[in-house]
Automatic annotation (TrEMBL):
The protein's name: Phosphate transport system permease protein
Domain of life: Bacteria
Record key words, sorted: Cell membrane, Membrane, Phosphate transport, Transmembrane, Transmembrane helix, Transport
ABC transmembrane type-1 domain segment(s): 69-296
Membrane spanning residue stretches: 25-49, 61-94, 106-130, 150-176, 233-253, 273-296
Amino acid sequence: MPTSAAARPVVQTGDRIFAGTAKGAGILILLVLAGVAVFLIAQAVPAFLASPADLPGGQNLVAYIGPLVFGTILAAVIALVIATPLAVSVALFITHYAPRRLAQGLGYMVDLLAAVPSIVYGLWGVAVLAPATLGLSDWLNRNLGWLPFFAGPVSVTGRTMLTVGVTLAVMILPIITAVAREVFLQTPTLHEEAALALGATRWEMIRMAVLPFGRSGVISGAMLGLGRALGETMAVAIILSASGAITFNLISSDNPSTIAGNIALQFPDSTGLAVNTLIASGLVLFVITLLVNAIARYIINRRREFSGAN
């Protein structure tokens, strides 16, 4: 039996416009991303094909970029290790412990941290945090100096990889907190009430119902924060006293630089093949950041909702 015209869904003009705009925006983002990739590859090719003697420092490209990749990942991992548990704790306090008015104000304050310019974080890190870490670095060296992370000698300025990691942790804290807070708020109420009805304490309810539900969301938020930490430029360039060495020592003056910080410091005075080398390192950072965000998106897409309760 043919379907009547009245039974067919009517597509409004506004729906068509919105669908077309959304589709065009998605295509535009892909084109911009592809354009950036093409530009980086085209500009990096001369560095890939050049003789090692012509590159900065007279070494091959891997030897030049390798320490920068190491420093970039090391600083980002330190920030992630510090920020993730703190962000989860803050998100749990806002969603399940704090009174409503306090939770709302605290949520706004945490979100405002994301609006602070990175150069302000850099100035805070070098003027406040770096001197404040001198005593901690001395204590770590005396008591944990047998670990390669705190072997020393201790930097007299505090402009170390540890200071950079703590600064980056503060910068990515609002990103992870915001994602974790929204995921924790979506925990099915019936699951929480069921745990409390069975005699669980508030912490036991959080451990049995909230944290399992929000685990993948916390992981994806941490990956997004990691992507931010990997690409941070000005704060790292201001704080870090880089020597180019590959070392796990977090409290000495011998620190590996990061890709973004090295580009910011070297690009203004570079010409010719040196510029191509810096762009090649930027291409490596582009690939690393793209992989991190792709992994985060993969985790989000695989997230399985709890069924049967809302």
